Automatic annotation (TrEMBL):
<keyword id="KW-0444">Lipid biosynthesis</keyword>
<keyword id="KW-0547">Nucleotide-binding</keyword>
<dbReference type="GO" id="GO:0032049">
    <property type="term" value="P:cardiolipin biosynthetic process"/>
</dbReference>
<dbReference type="GO" id="GO:0005739">
    <property type="term" value="C:mitochondrion"/>
</dbReference>
<comment type="similarity">
    <text>Belongs to the CDP-alcohol phosphatidyltransferase class-II family.</text>
</comment>
<keyword id="KW-0067">ATP-binding</keyword>
<dbReference type="GO" id="GO:0008444">
    <property type="term" value="F:CDP-diacylglycerol-glycerol-3-phosphate 3-phosphatidyltransferase activity"/>
</dbReference>
<dbReference type="GO" id="GO:0005524">
    <property type="term" value="F:ATP binding"/>
</dbReference>
<keyword id="KW-0677">Repeat</keyword>
<dbReference type="InterPro" id="IPR001736">
    <property type="entry name" value="PLipase_D/transphosphatidylase"/>
</dbReference>
<dbReference type="InterPro" id="IPR016270">
    <property type="entry name" value="PGS1"/>
</dbReference>
<keyword id="KW-1208">Phospholipid metabolism</keyword>
<comment type="pathway">
    <text>Phospholipid metabolism; phosphatidylglycerol biosynthesis; phosphatidylglycerol from CDP-diacylglycerol: step 1/2.</text>
</comment>
<keyword id="KW-0732">Signal</keyword>
<feature type="domain" description="PLD phosphodiesterase">
    <location>
        <begin position="168"/>
        <end position="194"/>
    </location>
</feature>
<comment type="function">
    <text>Functions in the biosynthesis of the anionic phospholipids phosphatidylglycerol and cardiolipin.</text>
</comment>
<keyword id="KW-0594">Phospholipid biosynthesis</keyword>
């Protein structure tokens, strides 16, 4: 019976699709993407500060190491925190670091802020909340736990939809892990699978205070419009803040939009002033250099060769920057450019699908085979979700064939025994180049949920540095190495059989997973 409650949200009106504005790209190299800076802050850094990680174990060990050495701040945003031994070890690391910080000074400078989703983090008797309450009880002045609750789950809908199914309405899906001035961007959650055998993507931005400040402020802004976990496992809103499901929805969404856009616009202003100051100093330095020789400007920083653009998508709040940038990238990709796009859950929005099928670039799309889908083997209705993805994949492949685009648009399925697949993002190779100059990495899956329902964040990393381009290329190759090309015969295999009821229901529920 509960599975049919999943259809209840279909009664709510659809959100209109907003297309990206036209843009003109500069003709040369990485700087052709500077138009993104018209929408979001642009952070110019040295490529030596960027490190691409490749495995769940490396990700987990880095999280622990960064927590142990943090002095000022630990900020972690995730869908949820798991309840196993590995997750407990992370919590223990936080506790030890907070304790050391207290002992060192008597009053600690270290602040810990954790942002999770309310519905996913409250699932079951032992959950993310019960894992974190001991920290709140022991360090009430230093620890903040915020639980985002979508404003779209309210009233009768909230009463009717059972646990787990209520997560289909909307989530806090951002994954950012920040330690002092070091930032990890990923699609991975804080759960044992993501530390062991669920393949994702991860990038570390080291010694990047401006980027760390931005994401710290972003998480704080979302935290301010979220429920605050209390020491007795109750939750309450900050004083004077509109409640996400009891208060007025329009007022709440306007407040949330204002808070998030303040962060984005303030960072843009700061970066523009910094760029102007840097440009002025570099002009003075060049003049001095021409007059007095190469040693004169000594202290000037090297010119950045890599640019970081944070892309935020929060359609419930009317923020759709990531959607606009992604659509523009797909639209403007030139003939003979190659786009490697990957998602653990292949369910592209109609707008993205039309762009892939109707533009000029070559596409190599990596998706999960049924056996490495995160829902494979799940109980109840959720167990049919991999079959629904097979159905969606087959429909898309049929369109590719119908349009005779098999050479330009190729699907590849990730398959690896004992593993699941959760990697998402894209790599863009300009025409004639063997290395990517741009990658998108973060939480979005390019599906309806990512665009319309959830809170998402990723970064566009644009680089001119060959060594970093090589790192990104190797990351892409390593993921695609575990894949096979999809053909008509793929769907004739016994494990690709899709039951009739799944085919009938998929169009009705595809916007919820």
């Amino acid at each position: 019976r509960s599975s049919w409650l999943l259809l209840a949200p279909l009664l709510s009106p659809p959100v209109p699709v907003v297309t990206a504005p036209p843009c003109s790209l500069c003709p040369e190299g990485a700087h052709r993407f500077q138009w993104i800076g018209n929408l979001v802050p642009e952070f110019g850094i040295s490529s030596s500060r960027v490190k691409v990680l490749s495995s769940p174990t490396e990700f987990y060990e880095l999280l622990k190491a960064q927590i142990k050495t943090a002095k000022q701040r630990v900020v972690m945003a995730s869908l949820y925190l798991g309840t196993g031994l590995l997750e407990q070890e992370l919590v223990d690391c936080l506790e030890e670091t907070l304790e050391k910080s207290l002992q060192a000074k008597g009053s600690s400078d270290l602040r810990v802020s954790i942002l999770l989703d309310y519905t996913r983090g409250s699932r079951g008797r032992k959950n993310s909340r019960t894992m974190l309450i001991p920290l709140l009880q022991r360090f009430p002045e230093q620890v903040r736990v915020s639980l985002f609750h979508t404003p779209n789950l309210r009233g009768l809908l909230r009463l009717l939809i059972p646990e787990r199914f209520n997560e289909t309405i909307g989530l806090q899906h951002i994954k950012v892990y920040l330690f002092d001035d070091n930032v990890i961007l990923s699609g991975a959650n804080l759960s044992d699978l993501y530390f062991t055998n669920r393949q994702d993507r991860y990038v570390l931005l080291q010694d990047s205070p401006e980027i760390a400040d931005f994401f710290s402020e972003l998480v704080e802004a979302i935290g301010d419009v979220s429920l605050q976990l209390q020491r007795d496992d109750t939750v309450q809103m900050m004083e004077g803040m509109e409640h996400p499901y009891r208060g007025d929805k329009v007022t709440y969404c306007e407040t949330a939009n204002r808070r998030v856009m303040e962060v984005i616009n303030a960072a843009r202003t700061r970066q523009e002033l910094l760029h102007a100051k840097t440009f002025h100093c570099s002009q003075q330095g060049s003049s001095l250099l021409s007059q007095t020789g190469p040693q004169a400007p000594g202290g000037l920083k090297p010119e950045p060769d890599t640019w970081i653009y944070p892309l935020i998508q929060m359609k419930p709040f009317g923020i759709q920057i990531d959607e606009m940038v992604t659509e523009t990238l797909l639209t403007e990709a030139e003939r003979d450019a190659r786009i490697y796009l990957t998602t653990g859950y292949f369910n592209l929005t109609q707008a993205y699908m039309d762009l892939v099928l109707g533009t000029r670039a070559e596409y190599r799309i990596l998706l999960a085979s049924p056996e490495v889908n995160g829902f494979f083997g799940a109980k109840g209705v959720a167990g049919a979700i991999p079959a629904a993805y097979v159905h969606i994949e087959r429909q898309f492949y049929s369109q590719v064939c119908y349009l005779h685009q098999q050479q330009r648009v190729r699907l590849q399925e990730y398959s690896r025994a004992g593993w699941t697949f959760h990697a998402k993002g894209l790599w863009l190779y300009l025409a004639g180049s063997d290395l990517p100059c741009l990658t998108l990495i973060g939480s979005p899956n390019f599906g309806y949920r990512s665009v319309h329902r959830d809170l998402e964040a990723q970064v566009a990393i644009v680089t001119e540095n060959k060594a970093l381009q090589q790192q990104l290329h190797q990351e892409q190759e390593q993921l695609y190495l575990c894949s096979g090309v999809v053909s008509s015969s793929t769907f004739e295999q016994p494990n690709r059989y899709v039951k009739l009821w799944v085919k009938l229901v998929t169009p009705l529920i595809k916007n919820f997973f």
